[in-house]
Amino acid sequence: MKKAYLSLALLLAPSISLSAVTGAGFLNVPLSPQQLGMGEVSIGGQDVLRAWSNPAMLSDQSTRGEICMNGGSFFDAGQSGLGAGAGWRFDSGWAAGVEFSSMSMKFSELDEFGDPTGSSMEQAQSAVALVAALRTGPASWGVALKSVTDSIAGNSASVGAADAGVTLDLNSFLVGAAFRNLGTELRSEKEGAEGGESLPQEIRGGLAYRYSPFGLLGGVEYTSAEGQGKIGVGAEWWINRMFALRAGLAGLGAANGQRLTAGLSARIAGIGIDYAAGTHTLGLTHQVGISYGFGDSLATAEISQANEPAEAPREEVAVEKKPAVVAAKPASGMLNVAVSDLTPQGVSASDAAVIADMLRSELVKGGRFNIIEKQNMEKILSEQAFQQSGCTSEECAVKIGKLLNVHRMIVGSFGKLMDKYFVSLRVVNVETGAVVFADSAKGRTVEDIESGIQDLSRKIGKQVR
Predict the structure, then answer these.
(1) 3-state class (DSSP) for residue 379
(2) Which of 67, 153, 218, 431 has its CA 20 to 30 A from that of 382?
(3) Residue 274: its pLDDT value, please?
(4) φ and ψ at 25, to 5 degrees?
(5) β-strand 285-294 against 336-339: which pairing, if any?
(6) Looking at the predicted structure, is the pLDDT value of residue 326 above 70?
(7) Cα angle at 423 between 422 and 425, to 5 degrees?
(8) For residue 130, what are the domain limits?
(9) Which of 454, 410, 401 is nearest to 436 (CA)?
(10) Number of structural domains found in the chain
(11) What is the pLDDT of residue 91?
(12) 113-120, Cβ contacts within 8 angstroms, sequence gap of 24 or more
């Protein structure tokens, strides 16, 4: 009597065909709980595990370095999965990392009529990938090389595969595309075995919009695998700097129907906890993960009000002295950067100080630089009897930068003309005195200026080296 084996785990990713999953369809299951909670939309996220779906996203992680792991259970809990990843961003624009995925599935034996025989066996599948990404201006390019292994009933099969992807950050809009699982057939290692299972090659393309003032992110992504296409839509809302909620709809247009997804995140002192769940006709799927971001804090400092200066703004020429307190040296090669008080023009000095604090907070959040805290700046400059108010020239910026022992100084102004507010920034290379970045933002409301500061911070993070 001819027998066959069938596993509920064949439906782990409902958009993948049964024949595909028996080989390596688990390769197309999202590894990131954040991605799963957002309708399986990968574009726009900043966790290192989204590089599993698009290797270019490795350069978008929210901290310089990140390590993470997760686990999930599916349907009747007879199917489980594990995932892990680590990534590191370099100053040159390069990012490198490694990611791992493993799934274990229980199979029920069926007879030729499709009835259970009472026997079962397990199938184990795993893949490890080496990922590299390069950011060039607004674009990021990534590639992943991976090894895939499948084992069932003592028979193993393995193959090498590759992924390639690109993302484009256009301020509030983000675009991404990836080609995945490019490789030969997953062939059995048993001597004399014939044929093989084709890898479930996948094409992804997505668009996201980020509205920073409210911490909102919305996206849509199309995925095609094994000739079957589906669409996912989702949204993410960071309620504050510590908590986020997600919701989405996955599998639109897929043969197995659409599924609701939801998730949440908590971030405290660089440690992140993520949870996601998704519906299915066979039951809920769950995924929980823990991560640690290092090199910079995941949380930004609170914006604080500054007092009015005791003296009117003026240009100060400092006496060349060694600072009494030396600013912290760059962590792992990051540039030391300081933000000078912005010169007020038609606004109060306290308003200008708040805008400068906004910029410091966004630069800390971006994770590209080692930002000198305002209190440390004031302590060093006061010990040197240096007044930074009114310092707008490159010469003055260089003098302050040398006292603070930083590589780059950010100077500029905040003003109002008629009914519009303007923020103008310049980044000065302390060693050469050259202006390496200059840009401005404008708006009529506080929300407009806050959004403009976030855009300027992202541009500085991408262009200043």
Answers:
(1) helix
(2) 431
(3) 94
(4) -65, -20
(5) unpaired
(6) no
(7) 145
(8) 4-182+194-294
(9) 410
(10) 2
(11) 65
(12) 114/4, 117/3
pTM, two decimal places:
0.62
Amino acid present at 462 = K
For residues 336 and 280, membership in a common domain is answered with no
Token couple for 24: 């390596």
Distance separating alpha carbons of residues 49 and 290, to the nearest angstrom: 11
Half-sphere exposure in the Cβ direction for 289 (13 Å, CA)? 33
Average the pLDDT over 96-109 and give the result. 82
pLDDT band at 109 (very low <50, low <70, confident <90, very high): low
Distance between CA atoms of residues 344 and 76, nearest Å: 63
Mean pLDDT on 416-436 = 87
Collapsed DSSP state (helix, strand, coil) of residue 438: strand
Query: What residues contact 323, with CB distance under 8 A and at least 6 apart?
Result: 380, 383, 384, 403, 404, 405
Q: Is 386 a member of any domain?
A: yes
Q: CA 270 to CA 316: how far, in whole Å? A: 39
Q: Cα 62 to chain center, whole Å?
A: 5
Residue whose pair of structure tokens reads 């080692």 in the numeric block:
370
Q: What is the CATH number of the domain that holds 40?
A: 2.40.160.60
Which residues are bridge partners to 435 per DSSP?
A: 428
3-state secondary structure the chain: CCCEEEEHHHHCCCCCCHHHHCCCHHHHCCCCHHHHHCCCCCCCCCCHHHHHCCHHHHHHCCCCEEEEEEEEEECCCCEEEEEEEEEEECCCCEEEEEEEEEEEEEEEEECCCCCEEEEEEEEEEEEEEEEEEEEECCEEEEEEEEEEEEEECCEEEEEEEEEEEEEEEECCEEEEEEEEEEECCEEECCCCCCCEECCCCEEEEEEEEEEHHHCEEEEEEEEEECCEEEEEEEEEEECCCCEEEEEEEEEECCCCCCEEEEEEEEEECCEEEEEEEECCCCCCEEEEEEEEEECCCCCCCCCCCCCCCCCCCCCCCCCCCCCCCCCCCCHHHCCEEEECCCEEECCCHHHHHHHHHHHHHHHHHHCCCEECCHHHHHHHHHHCCCCCCCCCCHHHHHHHHHHHCCCEEEEEEEEEECCEEEEEEEEEECCCCCEEEEEEEEECCHHHHHHHHHHHHHHHHHHCC
State both tokens at 6: 């069938």
CA distance 45 to 53: 11
Q: Are residues 224 and 346 in the same domain?
A: no
What is the dihedral angle through the alpha carbons of 188, 190, 194, 196, rounded to the nearest 10 degrees? 0
Residue 223 is assigned to a structural domain of this protein: yes
pLDDT in tens, 329-343: 444 467 899 998 888
